[in-house]
Design brief:
Number of domains: 3
Largest sheet: 12 strands, antiparallel
Strand content: over 45%
Number of helices: 3
Distance between the termini: 96 Å
Oligomer: single chain
Structural class: alpha+beta
Shape: flat
Helix content: 10-25%
Order of helices and strands: HHEEEEEEEEEEEEEEEH
Number of strands: 15
Length: 205
């Protein structure tokens, strides 16, 4: 690259930095750490768009990206800087609204959300843009109201819902309701089944 081209590139970078700072969205430190700040009417987002390697886009995933001072989401694609790093939302009173992290535009790890009074609302675990692992929901007083588990973004296993003084239990497999699973492993059930069959046959004889 010639000296002239280097100078032009440097001037363009300086211009972009100054323009962003003038809009009140970045500081020089933010520019260097790839930090972004997006202000909404009733909350503020603080996130990161750290550079990522070229990625293979999955059609069934929701990608979050940053462009023209907005954070957007698109299934199976993106057109801007992918969110990559810690993610936080704050109410106007500076209390946390949501907290989590992104990896190359996809939600990852534990995510939490709160109401404006600081009461915990939800907890989810994400893996490459899909819910995987335990989840919990809380009532207006911050008490546990629902818990269960996701696998590959579908309810899977035991789900417990607290309704006042009662508790409702349901079971899911790949997102569909199923009967309560057997406690004993299948091979042990088969052994008992064979013994029962032999005992019945001997009584008939």
């Amino acid at each position: 690259m010639s000296k002239l081209n280097k100078r032009i590139s440097f001037l363009v970078m300086i211009f972009i930095l100054v323009a962003d700072m003038a809009m009140g969205q970045y500081s020089s430190k933010d520019f260097l750490t790839h930090k972004i700040i997006v202000n909404h009417d009733n909350y503020t987002v603080v996130a990161y768009v750290k550079p990522t390697h070229k990625i293979y886009v999955e059609s069934d995933r929701l990608y979050y990206w940053f462009s023209t001072n907005l954070i957007k989401s698109t299934q199976g694609g993106y057109s801007g800087k992918l969110l990559n790093g810690r993610y936080q939302e704050f109410f106007l009173n500076k209390s946390l609204k949501e907290w989590g992290a992104f990896s190359a535009g996809l939600k990852t790890g534990k995510w939490k959300s709160w109401d404006e009074a600081g009461k915990l609302k939800e907890e989810y675990y994400w893996d490459s843009g899909k819910r995987n692992g335990t989840y919990s929901k809380y009532d207006l007083l911050g008490r546990l109201a629902e818990k269960g588990k996701y696998r590959n973004d579908l309810l899977n296993g035991k789900q417990t819902v607290m309704l006042g003084d009662s508790t409702k239990v349901a079971y899911f497999k790949k997102g569909k309701p199923v009967a309560k699973p057997h406690i004993l492993p299948k091979f042990i059930r088969n052994i008992f089944s064979k013994k029962t069959t032999k005992h019945t046959e001997s009584q008939i004889q």
